[in-house]
Specification:
- By secondary structure, the chain is α+β, with helices and mostly antiparallel strands.
- The chain has a domain of 214 residues: Class I glutamine amidotransferase (GATase) domain (Rossmann fold, 3-Layer(aba) Sandwich).
- It is 18% helix and 28% strand.
- The strands form 4 sheets. It has an 8-stranded mixed β-sheet. Strands 1, 2, 3 and 14 form a 4-stranded antiparallel β-sheet that branches. The protein has a 4-stranded antiparallel β-sheet with strand order 15-16-17-18, with no helix packed on it.
- A hairpin with a 5-residue loop joins strand 15 and strand 16.
- Pfam families: DUF7133 (PF23500), ThuA (PF06283).
- This is WW domain-containing protein.
- Keywords: Signal.
């Protein structure tokens, strides 16, 4: 089965639409596979489920936005069969936010090898109620869900020196008030929910073999998932869990920061709302754009064409000869009546004639167009 690669347009750069397995080289590439040496983005697998109770399908994209700014790619799955050695080897850490009762023996073995071999495990909220048949899993995450009420509270930070709590402030939310059982004493508690004389561990970390485990009981629904403090907590936890080596690689990767909204102050759910654009995003180089492009972990993207050979590409399609056809919109977003009175847009063919993977021949197929938005091949092209 072929894998689909979604390419991101950032400024006026185009990248090859022919997906290639990682491992080849070129002047400018984007390949972030786990285990790769040198600067790269981290790779996180998020295990969710097909249920609106603990809506992982809704919250995983929210978390992906936050993690991406920290240099981490997130891939979402609801398939327990993805817990196998071959697939897990592509990732630096696994997030679990789901309700599954049992863990198959081969999946437990794969997960154990993954964590104890040095990768991260991030069980969130309901993950302490998962896999009741696996003593190894329950011991590894550090505790098991017992019961809960519901209410407004603020968990207290009890360890302010740990990397996970750096830059974190306590936040109030309405959430399920988890009570745990079978707590593993071999853990470091970072936050507690205080209720009367009870101090319930609510966020903790621990080590399992060579791997790191981060857990928080926060996260039942929108009330918590929309809190910037919760997103910061989980982002810190994931970044800690991937380990020192991957953290260093992410820092060396030096991905550009292009957020023009100061979104650390915007609830993650508010991205669907309209906001006043404070400024235009500054143009990026091809190298910078590649750092903001996510593809499947075992594929890479290579540069195919860039300015000045192309201008303002807004649509593209590949023909049967391997040529890239693009719509260049010089006029966008204005009609010709609002500019110089001429139609300046065009369709251009970008062709690689020497098979080096980069376009070296550029032919204008149609010009004097105004705001063309798409194209389709018909009648033999």
């Amino acid at each position: 089965m072929k894998k689909l690669v979604y390419l991101v347009f950032l400024t006026a750069w185009l990248f090859s639409g022919c997906a290639k397995k990682a491992g080849t080289t070129s002047a400018i590439t984007s390949s972030h596979k786990s285990g790769k040496e040198g600067p790269r983005r981290g790779e996180i697998l998020f295990l969710g489920h097909n249920s609106k109770h603990h809506d992982s399908g809704k919250y995983a994209p929210w978390l992906a936005i936050t993690l991406f700014k920290s240099g981490l790619n997130l891939t979402y799955t609801t398939n327990l069969k993805d817990l196998n050695p071959e697939n897990l080897s592509k990732y630096d850490a696994l997030v679990i936010y789901a309700n599954y009762d049992t863990l198959a023996t081969d999946q437990e073995k794969a997960l154990q090898g993954f964590v104890e071999g040095g990768k991260g495990l991030i069980p969130l909220h309901c993950a302490t109620g998962c896999f009741k048949n696996s003593p190894w899993y329950l011991n590894t995450i550090g505790g098991q869900f017992k019961s809960h009420g519901n209410g407004a509270f603020t968990a207290a930070i009890v360890n302010k020196k740990h990397p996970v709590t750096q830059g974190l402030t306590e936040f109030s939310t309405t959430d399920e008030t988890y009570v745990h059982q079978n707590l593993n004493k071999d853990k470091t508690v970072l936050m507690e929910r205080v209720e009367g004389s009870t101090r319930e561990p609510y966020t903790w970390v621990r080590h399992q073999g060579k791997g790191r485990v981060f857990y928080t009981a926060y996260g039942h629904d929108d009330s918590t998932w929309t809190k910037p403090g919760f997103q910061k907590l989980v982002s810190n936890g994931v970044l800690w869990a991937v380990g020192d080596k991957v953290q260093k690689q992410i820092a060396q990767f030096n991905a550009p920061q292009v957020d023009i909204y100061a979104s650390s102050n915007i609830a993650i759910s508010d991205y669907t709302k309209r906001h006043l654009v404070p400024k235009m995003q500054e143009a990026l180089t091809p190298e910078q754009s590649l750092k903001l492009t996510q593809v499947p972990v075992d594929f890479e993207v290579q540069l195919f064409a860039a300015e000045p050979d192309i201008t303002n590409p807004i649509a593209m399609s590949w023909d049967e000869r391997g040529r890239l056809w693009i719509v260049e919109s010089v006029d966008y977003p204005n009609t010709f009546l609002e500019t110089d009175g001429a139609a300046n847009d065009r369709i251009k063919i970008c062709e690689d004639t020497n098979n080096d993977g980069k376009a070296d021949k550029f032919t204008v197929f149609a010009d004097k167009l105004n705001i063309p938005t798409s194209m389709v091949f018909a009648n033999g092209g």
